[in-house]
Write a structure and sequence with these properties.
Layout (H helix, E strand, L loop, with lengths): L1 E4 L8 H14 L4 E5 L5 H5 L9 H5 L10 E2 L5 E4 L8 H4 L9 H6 L8 E5 L6 H9 L2 E7 L2 H21 L4 E10 L4 H13 L9 E2 L2 H5 L7 H4 L4 H21 L8
Parallel strand pairs: 1-5, 1-6, 2-4, 2-5, 6-7, 7-8
Antiparallel strand pairs: 3-4
Bound molecules: adenosine-5'-triphosphate and magnesium ion.
Magnesium ion (MG) binds next to helix 1.
Amino acid sequence: MVICISNQKGGVGKTTIALNLASALALAELRVLLVDFDPQSHITIGFNIDPQGKTIYRVITGELDIRESIHQTSIENLFVIPADEDLAGLEAEASQMENNRFLLKKELDKIKEEFDFVFIDCPPSIGIYTINALCASDFVIIPVLADFYSLEGFSKFFKAIEYIREGLNPSLEILGIVINMYDRRTKLTKEVEEEFLKYFPEKIFTVKIPKNVKIAEAPSFGLPIQLYSPSSPGADAFSLLVEEFIEKIEKSKQIKINRKM
Ligand SMILES: Nc1ncnc2c1ncn2[C@@H]1O[C@H](COP(=O)(O)OP(=O)(O)OP(=O)(O)O)[C@@H](O)[C@H]1O
Ligand SMILES: [Mg+2]
């Protein structure tokens, strides 16, 4: 199953959610692959991976077999296909490539059955990277902040998803919208949450991710929140998010996911 974490708005927690959700599932003894499909390479940096040229870019350009690009992380069961600055070149090069919206799908289709979950971290735009990620995915998770601009940006992103579903990838499903840096004490948070609930009632994750400094600190130690600060409110929120994530997948696919938690 392939899930991309995507929103054209920057700094909403895409990488944070991709990294911590993937890690938590791997810690529950599921086999997880995380693809860094952002030229900013934040997943790669967050896991302290030195890609040594074995990157998603070289897989897409046909220089490297995808299996050779899979790096083991410090967490058993968690693997990363890293990115480096070369990935930025793909934007221009893709225009010369055939079927350029399915470049990532073509590669991931070769290996996705070997993992319980494949996650894709996307950059903050609806360019070639995000379109490729959406075309390669069964589900998309959309992190948002509870602010006015997130609501604005979201409707634009929603239209992009509809466009993908109409032609390029009809089986793409929005798994859910995750409200990040949630602060229940502020009036704006409540108002924005109500707006999201009004328009997308079944799509909002019940679990909200609070603003928690441990979440922001963890990547500088090369660790997910669950290992960096297991008793923090951030780690608690991610444990609940994983449960809800699994419930949603089980419901949508009518399957049972066996995990150790
Ligand atoms: N719940 C949270 N509590 C505290 N800090 C957070 C939280 N979520 C994210 N952050 C921090 O906010 C910043 C932006 O998060 P992140 O990098 O995950 O967003 P992004 O959507 O991937 O950004 P980009 O669009 O640039 O890829 C990071 O410094 C991250 O550590
Ligand atoms: Mg990011």
